[in-house]
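are you around this afternoon, could really use another pair of eyes. what follows is a protein written twice so to speak, once as letters and once as C-alpha cells for the fold. i want to understand how the C-alpha cells follow from the sequence so walk me through it. anything you notice is useful, everything is just below.
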Amino acid sequence: MEQNINYASESGATVKAFTASPDGGKGKYPAIILIHEIFGLDNHIRDVARRLANEGYFVIAPNLMYGNLEPITEPALFAKLSPYLQKYRAIMNDAAKVKEFMDSLPDAERTLFTTFTSVTSGSLDGRFMSDLKGAFAYLGANENVNMKKVASMGFCFGGGMAGLLSVNIPEMAAHIIFYGKRPAAAKIGNITAPVLGIYGSLDTAITSTIPGLAEEMKNAGKNFKYVVYENAMHAFFNDTRPQVYNKEAATKAWEEVKAFLKENLGK
C-alpha cells in the first residue's frame, strides 16, 4: 500500500511525504526513513520505497526540499548547474577554493549555487533535523510500526542526513549512508546503532573521507561497515540517471542493504 501524506515537522512546518508498506496484514512492521538526493522526492526514491516495502518494511520518504529550496529540484533549473558540478565536487572540501569558484560564476548560476551549497554546507541541518524528527514522530503514531526497529537510509544529500540522524536519534536501530557526507567527528560518540556505508571508488570527494571515519568509529567502539564499489561513480545506485548508474554495483549494494536490514531490523 502506498500514500502521499502530510506530517508535522518539529518546527511546525508541514512536510509532504510518500509512504509505502507491505501489502496485507496489520502487524507491527520494522520501518525506514528514506531520504532523497538533493533532487527531492522523485520517482527514483518512490521506487526504492516500494522495493523496501516489498521486503517487509514500512517506509516514509519525506520531501525536505520545499519552500525556498524547491527551485534546485527543478530539472530545467538544475541543468544550469550541471557544467559546474564536477569542478565543485573536486573542491568541495576546501572553503577557500569554493569561495573563489562561487565568485567566478555568472549571477544567475551563482544564485542557484548559493541555494545548492546552503543544503550541502550544513547550514540548514537544523531545519532538516526538525523535519526528520517529525517523520520519526509520525512513525511513532502509526499502529503498524515497531518503533524498536526503525532505520534510516539516504542517498547523497540524504546519505548525509542518515548520518545526521545517527548522531541525533539514539532510539533508532540502524543507518545506511549511500555516498553521503560523513557524520561529524565530534558527534561520533552519540552513535548508538550500526551504520552501513556504501560508496563508489570514483566518487573521491566523498570516498576519500571514509577511511578516517572508519578509524574514528573503531576507536569509539562503534559498529561501522563500509563497502567501496570499484568503477562506481557518485549516485551509482540511481537507475534514472544513465550517466552515473552502475547496474553491477547497484545490484551488489542492494543485496548488502537487504542483509544489513535483516540483521538489524529483522522482519
Q: What stands out?
A: The chain has two domains: 2-66+124-265, 73-120. The chain has a mean pLDDT of 93.
